[in-house]
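Narrative of activities, Objective 1.

The group set out to show that a structural description can be obtained from nothing but a protein's sequence at a throughput compatible with the screening campaign. Below is one input-output pair from the validation batch, recorded exactly as produced.
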Amino acid sequence: MCPSVRGVNRSKQRGSVLVQTALMMTVLLAFVALAVDLGQVYAVRRRLQNAADAGALAGARALCFGAPAQAFSQASTYASLNGAPTATISIDYDQERVHVVAQETVSTYFAGVIGLSSFDVQAEATAACGVTNRVCGAFPVAFDLPTWEAKIACDQEFYVWDDDSIEDDMCDKCECEGVIGSAASIGPGHRGWVRMPYPPPLYPNPGGCTGNCGADDLKCWILNDYHGPLQIGQCVPGNPGVDASTQKEAEKREGDIVTVILWDAGACGPENTLGDCPGDLYYIAGFGRVELIDIDTKLTIPPKPGFDQSDCPKNAKAMRVRKVCDSLLVGCGHTDGVPVEEGFRSVSLVD
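Output recorded for this entry:
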């Protein structure tokens, strides 16, 4: 007997389904195989990116530390230690930038069946040594930036006054040179004791300062520095007037070199103000360093001919300090890559 037409159709259908299933399984296995190989490539890519970052940062640190001859070897060493079998390094010594390209050829497990036996994988990074826009460990005082830059030279000694009676034209009336050694000074309207909040998590607070806005808290920051991050563009509250108790605490820091805030005109609002202490707001425009040479609470400067002692400081409170301009690499700093010749600098990835 001849098979029925219905039986033949069923047989053909079963054969067609088997062929389609086989084709679908082949395509599916190809995708799975490709996914496995691509997963391996992405893992290598992440490792190479870490290696490129590490190499670029190490080379830029060598530039920042004043060891340009070691920048290439440092970049190469750290790229290798972090998993780059091959690294191409280029250094811009003028801009103090290090560029690292980490490379590796990855053999495939399955993609060879479609002609992809290997992938060339690479990652690159650029790090720069430049002006820092963030510091940690600041002495809680702010100086105005225009006076700092225009009137005070590197290694020059000057007075920082606490007395509200000190005026900008003091040295026109008083024998400043005989006492100060120069006409440079920063008076109450140009400086302020600043009030810091409690440091953010993960930042140290060696003195256990509380950030409660009071005099005791300010004394604590004076003795221990504020170790939270301070960023250019932020604002800190402060007081430009007399604060005798804090001046006495500063005597314990004589001989120390401390970081100070440099303030200038800038917009201050709740979104960029640190803490909620009352007081005048100082817009952070930069950072400087001074050596605290002497804290004097009874400083008297004699008048020039034609003036009286009442025109000049008598038993005034002042800090005698020295401007320090040596380069300093900031551990918690960040830079956008703007070159710096002196002062605070840090190393960051810029690309």
